[in-house]
Design brief:
The structure is a single chain. By secondary structure, the chain is of the alpha+beta class. 37% of the residues lie in helices and 26% in strands. The protein is built from seven helices and six strands. The longest helix is centred in the middle third of the chain and has 16 residues. It starts with 12 loop residues before the first helix and ends with a helix.
């Protein structure tokens, strides 16, 4: 699991419990399971898709992806993570999103990717906005922090377009313990609501 956002919030016990319950339910999401391992492996085996994402298992093998799916499900049962898949018209995995949650801080982060042939269609920015709305509205989070590799222009544009505030750089730790410098953004639920009321 990655690091929580820089800004530290404190959730009430009831708020944290409600967030955990919402994460476990994952209402409206296709939660990744064993039946999606092959599709996720095919998606992530493309270095153009998986290369910029620091928190994926390395190396990408079918076994490492299966373990990642299982670990994500165990964390979902704790109310701390949702790994979901987006299916294309043929029912194949076209992308994924992984929401990491810190219920005691009413905070979370979002990571994800789309298959190469589905990129540059305008759907990525729309998908980010929909995921952010879902995290605030359905999970009850009050703060979302996001990171992107320093050279990941596509993700940076989508994050900026979603209304996140740039807050410099952070060091992101990969599963193998190596460090990557990352751009860092935050968005509060209050700022998101204000932006979407105007």
């Amino acid at each position: 699991m990655s690091a929580p956002p820089k800004t530290e919030l404190v959730a009430t016990p009831d708020e944290a419990a409600a967030i955990r319950t919402a994460v476990r339910a994952a209402q409206g999401r296709v939660v990744a399971g064993p039946e999606h391992v092959d599709g996720l492996y095919q998606l992530l085996a493309d270095p153009a898709v998986s290369g910029p994402i620091y928190d994926l298992p390395k190396p990408i093998t079918r076994d490492s992806v299966a373990a990642w799916v299982a670990d994500s499900e165990a964390l979902r049962q704790e109310g701390r993570c949702i790994l979901s898949v987006n299916l294309d018209e043929a029912g194949a995995v076209g992308g994924y999103s992984r929401i990491t949650v810190w219920p005691e801080r009413a905070s979370g982060e979002l990571a994800g990717a789309r298959r190469g042939d589905l990129q540059n269609s305008g759907q990525g920015a729309r998908g980010v906005a929909q995921s952010i709305a879902w995290m605030f509205e359905h999970l009850g989070l009050r703060l979302i922090g996001l990171t992107a590799a320093l050279d990941n222009v596509r993700s940076a544009k989508a994050i900026d377009a979603a209304g996140f505030r740039r807050m410099g750089e952070v060091e992101s730790t990969r599963p193998d313990g190596t460090i990557r410098r990352s751009l860092y953004w935050e968005l509060t639920r209050a700022d998101w609501e204000l932006r979407h009321r105007l």
